[in-house]
Amino acid sequence: MDTLCHAALVCCILSALAGLVRTFWPQNGFKPVINAVLTLYIITAVLHAVSGLNWQNFDAQLQNFASQSAPGEDYTAYGAELAMQESAAALQKLLRQSGIESVVQPQAGGVHVRLVYPADREQAETLLQNFAGDLPYTLENTQ
C-alpha cells in the first residue's frame, strides 16, 4: 500500500508544480513550446517514479487489500421485492387503462388483485392471463 501511496503522491506533486509554472509564466509566443516541455517533463517524472516501483509487492498489496474488503451485500431479496412491486404497479396501470377499477397489491409469491366491480372479473381474468406472464396472481371480488 505504501507503493501506491508513493506513486499517488508523486503524481499529485508533479501536477501541482506544473500548474503553478503555467499559472505564473508570462503570456508569450513560446506557450506551445513551454506546454510541450512541461508535458515531457511530467511524463518523464511519472515514468521514472513508476519504474522504481516494486510491482510484485504492489500486486501482493492489492490482492491483500481486496481480500480484506468487506463482503458484498446480498440484494437479491430486495431486487425480488422491487420487481414484485413494479409488476403490481404495471398490472394496476393495465387494468386501469382497460377501465377496470381494482386494487393490486404485491404479496409473497405473487400479486393479489381485488376487483371493485364483480362484472369486470371476466375481462380482468383475460387481461391477467395475457399480460401477467409467469407472475402468480390471485383474483378476488370485493362485493
Describe this structure in words.
The chain is built from five helices and three strands. It has 143 residues and is mostly helical. Strands 1-2-3 form a three-stranded mixed β-sheet, covered by helices on one side. Helix 1 (2-24) runs antiparallel to helix 2. It is elongated.
Low-confidence stretches: none
Query: What characteristic shape results from the CA principal axes?
Result: elongated
Can you count the helices? 5
Strand order of the largest sheet: 1-2-3
Radius of gyration: 32 Å
> What portion of residues is helical?
55-70%
Give the class from helix and strand content and strand pairing. Answer: mainly alpha
How would you state the average pLDDT, rounded?
Answer: 80
- Helix and strand element order: HHHHEEHE
Summarize the main sheet. Answer: 3 strands, mixed
* Counted beta strands: 3
Instruction: State the separation between the terminal residues, measured CA to CA.
Output: 69 Å
> Strand-residue fraction?
5-15%
Explain briefly what this protein structure is:
The protein has helices spanning 2-24, 31-51, 55-68, 76-97, 121-131; strands at 102-107, 110-115, 137-141. It is mostly helical and 143 residues long.
Describe the secondary structure blueprint for this structure:
Elements: H1 2-24, H2 31-51, H3 55-68, H4 76-97, E1 102-107, E2 110-115, H5 121-131, E3 137-141
Parallel strand pairs: 2-3
Antiparallel strand pairs: 1-2
Task: Name its key features.
143 residues, mainly alpha, 5 helices, 3 strands, elongated
